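TA notes. Do not distribute before section.
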Amino acid sequence: MSRAAVVCGLGAWVPPRVVPNDVLAEQLDTSDEWIRTRTGIERRHVIEPGDATSDLAVEAGRRALASAAARGGAEAEGIDLVVLATSTPDHPCPATAPVVAERLGLGGVAAFDVGAVCTGFVYALAVAASMLTAGTAQRALVIGADTFSTILDPGDRTTRAIFGDGAGAVVLRTGDADEPGALLGFDLGSDGAGSDMITVRAGGSRQRSTGEPAPEGDQYFSMAGRAVFTEAVLNMSKSAQNLIDRIGWTGDASVDRVVAHQANVRILRAVGDQLGLADEQIVVNLDKVGNTVAGSIPLALADAVAAGDVRPGHRVLLTGFGGGLTWGSAALRWPDLALVPDPTPTLRKEQS
């Protein structure tokens, strides 16, 4: 039996404030019908003023740790690695992961951020799994969290309709490749030639080094929607198929569920079509939360597990596409996990 990283805990969190399509329609030149037709989204959650990505990451992390503990798995004090996937850190410097680790009572462990936008969770999962199988760590908390509401142009109906805030997390432990929950493989890729398709142009060293003020609007997120649609379908489908072929999930052992990045319902359906899968095999939760970027895949996974749509023994494929351009997929047989929706006590919020 070969050494593997095994999923043994799962948790997710969205902020309580809900923004339905009708609220956006009152503020922008849009309508509930326009948003639903083009994206499949009905509502999204956004943080309150003063909140930050770390607050969501901590809540999702607590739930994942409680989930692991409920099955007799990794307790908080057993975690020796925290990897946070985010494109909206609390500050440009330092990384947000050490703050999250400290607030979870994990101060002193290795903790760092991974930036791959909407593919971030898959990349973070791959990094953590590699460290576990190499023996660098024994138990890891992997979190995807983003607060894109903080970088959207208030007047852009397209981006404001798509994105929401949220976080999801898993706990990994070392184990054997034949165990339920073992991560069976990854497929990762990138194409920097498309970096301008999904970007925030201002705020980094490229713009700051000019010594000139950023052009108006460059401080906000921007996306080339049509081009991104095409690239997302192409690269998620190709990455997923590459991994399926590599691990031999074909014929009677084909994929049971695909949990893809929740960007747009038409993208999800198109990926399913490319893989020859039925609509019911594609997990969809973006109608309730929108595109939560790095939080998207673990949030969708948690919702599907809670609803009984992803069950123990299911062959589950995770796949994402995001800025960079980046894409990636991961595969596992789903284990028997206990979700803990509201562990107590609530951690105090610390802002700096």
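Switch to the second chain here.
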Amino acid sequence: MTTEVRVPTLGESVTEATVATWFKKPGDAVAVDEMLCELETDKVTVEVPAPAAGTLADIVAGEGQTVGVDALLATIAEGAAAAAAPAAAAAPTGGEDPAPGGDTVDVMVPTLGESVSEATVSTWFKSVGDAVAQDEMLCELETDKVSVEVPAPAAGVLAEITAPEGSTVAANARLAVISGSAAGAAGASASAPAPAAAPAAASGKDIANAPSAEKAMAEAGLSPDQVPGTGRDGRIMKEDVARAVASAVAAPAPAAEAAPRAPVPADDAAREERVKMTRLRQTIAKRLKDSQNTAAMLTTYNEVDMSAVMGLRKEYKDLFEKKHGARLGFMSFFTKACCHALKEVPEVNAEIDGTDIVYKNFVHMGIATGTPTGLVVPVIRDADSMSFAAIEKAIAEKGKRARDGKLSMAEMQGGTFTISNGGVYGSLMSSPILNPPQSGILGMHKIQDRPMVVNGEIVIRPMMYLALSYDHRIVDGKGAVTFLVRVKEALEDPRRLLMDL
């Protein structure tokens, strides 16, 4: 009996993905819910778990291949699970078998995709003579579509690198040779500095860490035992590495070792460092430029006196937290104010579909959130019908899950309007860029005391600049200015929100 592995739901507006990495190969035993591969879309990485236990019989969509929703990725033969599982359990330390006898194993370029015929070797994470564990990441290739990580096909010692960094290789070309001799195997077990093999033995895991995490650890000079894993079965994810680096877990020695790589000669050209953009960053760049090229984007500005909101928050924050179990922040006030303004100016909450304008009679509020891996926009659904407490709880919960890399694609889809708070980073003024197909985005900024004229007198008030970027194709200047004025009025007199004024 066979079970099909198919592309999961990617989100409302996402119809295809690229197969980034396979963590199993045909013939490998798999457990239920064990991660088989990673898919990359233009917004997020999606993990595909095994729907059943057994043996991976066939990989239909190779690395680098573009697949649609519900497309067939692989098949699992369930009948072979019983025989495969004990063999995996009886494997030597680390769960890998070295290549038999004195044989050598070639490391080949994996499948790159139908329209991709060559790749560039961007980074080697192992050197000749290093011990390698089976499925440990050896190097990374880059094509014009995606980065491809190459795992070791067997345990042993890296005997030869035939394609050094910077070289261009064709599909199915040989990259390196792994020696599986008895001496090589002994060297592998005795080589303590091997960054992945030794910790694997210590942890007893037979599930490899995410290749993206292995790469990040290699770049940061971290070993797996320095990074607590939050993935399935303790698997280390890329976000775990980012948190470890931010917490100063990394020892200073690796940084010192990395220093000689950047010599400082006299001429400026030699002091420059050229780093190739990741494929994800290239996609983000393309999306942002497409947004500018498609929408007639314009930004209007205003400023708001935050005295009333700050006073209200100071007066009730303790009671609020005691009753609702959530902190009272500024985002709930801004969310409520925007929902209020969107009812009066519905075109800011609309989108263009061909020659039609689609008006949304609800507000799915996107809250831009900074994470160790980049900016994401989780969506608070039906924010217009939520209380202050419900909004604060939703923002806190989704913000934490965003920083931990736990958001699903569905949670970042379907937004009708977005709020971006650059003030938390100290921004005083900016022009936010639209998140298509949305027609409006509000930019919050730093609260700063400034002298203001009130009733003919100069007083010091906590002021914030507000910016609304909008699509001028469906939002006129009058509507955009009216929206921002209504937000300003609601924040300067929060009682208007209670009375729907």
